[in-house]
């Protein structure tokens, strides 16, 4: 019987994928709602769901439309951090970002009872999709590339003397790595 690893399992897990999609969608809409609430409060506009889901509100000829657009782009920055904590895989960020924006398209179409027809809405969502995808991939790659700190498994006096020499070495050199250089290990 083959031993299966649970770290970064690549098996098909539909429950995990669906829960990640629902969580991403919920958190992105929560942050978008909070940002829209702040925008509404600052501009003195009425607090309605139209400001979040009606494509007609995102217009390039009014200051309120530009403010909503700025809020939606700010939400895409929050989406990067949501991707970092929910998805955690750089190669999956594009998939989850496109899924989020596809569902946003569906929700907007159902709420507005029309397929979005304003150029500003389409441009805004394409830019938001690019920002979330590229930013999420970059942040996830940085997280994936952090060195893994290995804990010492030795016990007793050898462990304490090694930890004292490791502490001296860490103080003398700024970067710390999980492995010792070869020349120090042979001594």
Detailed description of the structure:
This protein has 187 residues and is mainly α. It is 66% helix and 0% strand. The chain has helices at residues 14-43, 50-53, 63-86, 93-112, 119-144, 157-172, 182-185. It is built from seven helices and no strands. The two termini are 42 Å apart.
- Please work out how many helical segments DSSP would assign: 7
Which percent range describes the beta-strand content? under 5%
Helix content: 55-70%
Q: Element order, helices and strands?
A: HHHHHHH
Helix-strand blueprint:
Blueprint: H1 14-43, H2 50-53, H3 63-86, H4 93-112, H5 119-144, H6 157-172, H7 182-185
Helix pairs in contact: 1-3, 1-4, 3-5, 4-5
Describe this protein with a few key phrases.
transmembrane, single chain, mainly alpha, 187 residues, elongated, 7 helices, 66% helix
Give a summary of the structure in a few sentences:
Belongs to the SYS1 family. 66% of the residues lie in helices and 0% in strands.
């Amino acid at each position: 019987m083959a031993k299966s690893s649970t770290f970064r399992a690549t098996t098909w897990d539909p429950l995990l994928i669906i829960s990640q999609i629902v969580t991403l969608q919920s958190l992105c809409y929560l942050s978008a709602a909070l940002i829209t609430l702040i925008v509404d409060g600052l501009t003195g506009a009425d607090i309605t769901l139209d400001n979040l889901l009606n494509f007609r509100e995102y217009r390039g000829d009014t200051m309120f439309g530009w403010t909503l657009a700025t809020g939606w782009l700010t939400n895409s920055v929050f989406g990067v951090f949501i991707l970092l904590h929910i998805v955690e895989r750089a190669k999956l960020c594009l998939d989850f970002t496109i899924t989020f924006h596809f569902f946003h398209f569906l929700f907007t179409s159902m709420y507005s009872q029309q397929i979005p027809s304003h150029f500003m809405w389409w441009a805004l969502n394409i830019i938001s999709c690019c920002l979330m995808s590229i930013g999420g991939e970059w942040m996830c790659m940085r997280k994936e590339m952090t060195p893994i700190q290995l804990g010492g498994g030795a016990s007793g006096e050898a462990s304490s003397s090694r930890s004292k020499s490791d502490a001296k070495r860490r103080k003398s050199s700024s970067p710390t790595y999980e492995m010792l250089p070869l020349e120090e290990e042979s001594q």
